[in-house]
Design brief:
Number of strands of chain A: 0
Number of helices of chain A: 5
Strand content of chain A: under 5%
Largest sheet of chain A: none
Radius of gyration of chain A: 25 Å
Distance between the termini of chain A: 73 Å
Largest interface: A-B, 34 and 34 residues
Oligomer: homodimer
Number of domains of chain A: 2
Shape of chain A: elongated
DNA sequence: TTAAATGCTGGAGTTAGCTCTAAGTCAAGC
DNA sequence: GCTTGACTTAGAGCTAACTCCAGCATTTAA
């Protein structure tokens, strides 16, 4: 799979795919003889994983650390687990905060609905009294 | 209330408070005769609102638009409501995505736990066989 | 077999959102 | 009155995360 196919498949710009690899967010992608990227199943898996994690707000730096640990093999299992736990906990807190804000927005929208209805009534009254 | 008190109260850096005001995220704050900021209850309310919305990921630009509409009075009620609905919907989607990622992280953490246990067993075996 | 499209790299440029600096003003304690 | 620390502004600087560009190589369609 060449880079533009991967780009389409995951809706990630080509430049971003190269950037992620350059920054070590993805283990080096397999290449053809002439040096063109040729994504394997596993390479695609990494792309998808990174897309998902970035979407949830994990930083480039954190993900680079994770991949670096991954590259060091089994002796980093515990460290990787700890990193994931820390990120999971942060994510949980962000979701919590966002849910509160969601509720607040919903409340605000309701208030606006009431105010708009009240405004319209006011307008009708004025028209009738003319 | 002066700027450093507000900064402490909401855990927002002083520079950020000034920046928000400069960018029009907060209606102009009341001043003392000599020109120092003197936050009223309402000013504080805005600060808190902006903090909450920024925390949920609403952009500076979006919030500026909202405040601009607010400044134009009642005839922008419908527009403000529509803006809030659009942001609410985006927020919902972000939360949804993040919840999927949270579940995925939890799954991954469990897998790590199993792998770590398996690794330890392996080590014990080796020690015994010595 | 040649033109057009696509790929490569290193490095510069961009954007959002702050964060800091300089140079000056104001306020509170001695 | 003077010093010290907090406040003011305009504008520069910073960081994360891309995004674009130049200049060159490779692949593909005509």
């Amino acid at each position: 799979m060449n880079i533009s196919e991967v780009s389409k498949k995951y809706s990630i710009p080509i430049d971003t795919l190269r950037y992620y690899e350059k920054e070590g967010l993805i283990p080096p992608v397999h290449r053809t003889e002439s040096g063109l990227r040729d994504y394997s199943e596993q390479d695609c898996g990494w792309v998808e994983f990174i897309k998902c994690m970035r979407g949830a707000g994990l930083s480039i730096d954190t993900l680079r650390q994770y991949i670096t640990l991954y590259g060091k093999g089994n002796r980093t299992l515990q460290k990787r687990k700890n990193l994931l736990i820390a990120e999971r906990d942060k994510l949980k807190m962000r979701i919590d905060e966002m849910q509160h804000t969601l509720a607040r927005l919903n409340g605000k929208i309701e208030t606006y609905e009431e105010r708009i209805v009240a405004c319209e009534k006011e307008l009708l009254k004025k028209r009738k009294s003319k």
